[in-house]
Input
Amino acid sequence: MAAARDPWRILGIPPGSGEGEIRRAFLGLVRRHHPDQFPRGSPEARWHEERLKEVIWAYQEARRRTSSAARRPVADAPSPRRPSFRLHCNAHQRWAVIYCTACGAPLCSRCDPALTGYCGQHRRQRMQM
Ligand SMILES: [Zn+2]
Ligand SMILES: [Zn+2]
Output
């Protein structure tokens, strides 16, 4: 791909949208593309898998840009510490739809049903704050 990927275009929202809008767009696209709803290994599932990867990337990138622009440096973005793009969670070996903002752990829709963007451990920590 010649041009840099544009997270806003992938999510279908205007550049600089707020976290609420980013999240709404993301959840809609995850629902549409989640490969669990197609026969495993089928061309259809693979196609949607690729779309979902893009969507996940766009979501993280959009949030990173929003939060770094708004309040904090990118130091705590998960990507540098993430060894590779993991697609399945550790607990259930299911499709990860989101990554912990604090540690980068892959989380499936069961690990993080409300899609808070934090693993169990970091979610508890945040709730205590
Ligand atoms: Zn975590
Ligand atoms: Zn899981």
